[in-house]
Amino acid sequence: MEKVSKRILSGVQPSGDLHLGNYLGAIKNFVSLQKEFECFFCVVDLHAITVWQDPKILKQKTREVAAAFIASGIDPEKNTLFVQSQVPQHAQLAWIFNCVARMGWLNRMTQFKDKAGKNSENVSVGLFSYPTLMAADILIYLATHVPVGEDQKQHLELTRDIAQKFNSDFKTDIFPIPEPLILGAATRVMSLRDGLKKMSKSDPSDYSRIMLSDSEEEIQKKIRKAKTDPLPLPDNIEDAKKRPEAINLLTIYAALNDLEVEKAVANYAGKEFSQFKKDLSDLLIANIEPIRKELTRLDNDQVFLKEILEKGTGQAMKRSSVNMKKIKDIVGLS
Ligand code: ATP
Ligand code: MG
Fold it and tell me: Which of 222, 244, 285, 308, by CA, is between 20 and 30 Å from 4?
């Protein structure tokens, strides 16, 4: 195995507009981890097409997600930023992993169950085999660490199982067993309309999420309308945990301030939601407004974005083709 102690891969789907969950669960952590790790960050458009995407909108959203990486503080010079579909080795390794992973393993994936719902006979095969492509995204770069939100923990466990089975089937140690990095206070940001549902790009209600492209007024309105219960804010963390909407807003507040949730609960114990919501809006605006401005600037500089992605594709392709050659040789594909 190549002796590298710290290499990251992580991706975000261009399946819609980026929201606060993507930022706090993933991108904000990418920004702090880039100092310590060699990083590959990609826009995972092959994952997005596991459900129907309008081709024109998909192209546009792909550019927007790449721009959001940069606008949030990822340095495109230091890290490799690219679009997954432009590097064919991901799909190639995913096929090999389809032949390594077991049906029983994939049948246990809760994201498939959540996304397919009652429609499981009629969704794409890609939606079912999504986790083997995710394993390939990570392992084609021999990544050792994967920063993700809590919802991806099970897929990471599957990636580890695939790496282990491959290494043991082929008597090799080529693949590292990658570690999830689930960091910060807000590893699972919930919908602003329903504290029991994950904040998600695919939720039909715009009021369920704060977008990185939201204006000050939109943020204020969404937080004002965010569902809460009629009681004042909880006195302690145990009570807070029993109140899904309250703990969600307190968690967002804590994550944006790099605080423990307990500390946020203590700061607002027994206070009214009106004051807390005002403070939370201000905090969100202070964090999101610079990103939104930078997104607008990058939107007007498509040439820059194109150059960054082309450079990233070249770097990703170089690394992944060297690894793919070794993997094919191990499997006996010649
Ligand atoms: P979709 O609804 O299309 O699956 P999504 O909002 O879940 O979109 P993804 O592109 O699937 O976004 O995920 C990108 C990253 O954001 C992943 O690391 C994921 O774990 C993280 N993430 C997504 N939603 C949340 C959330 N609500 N809280 C924390 N992290 C999240
Ligand atoms: Mg998702």
Answer: 308
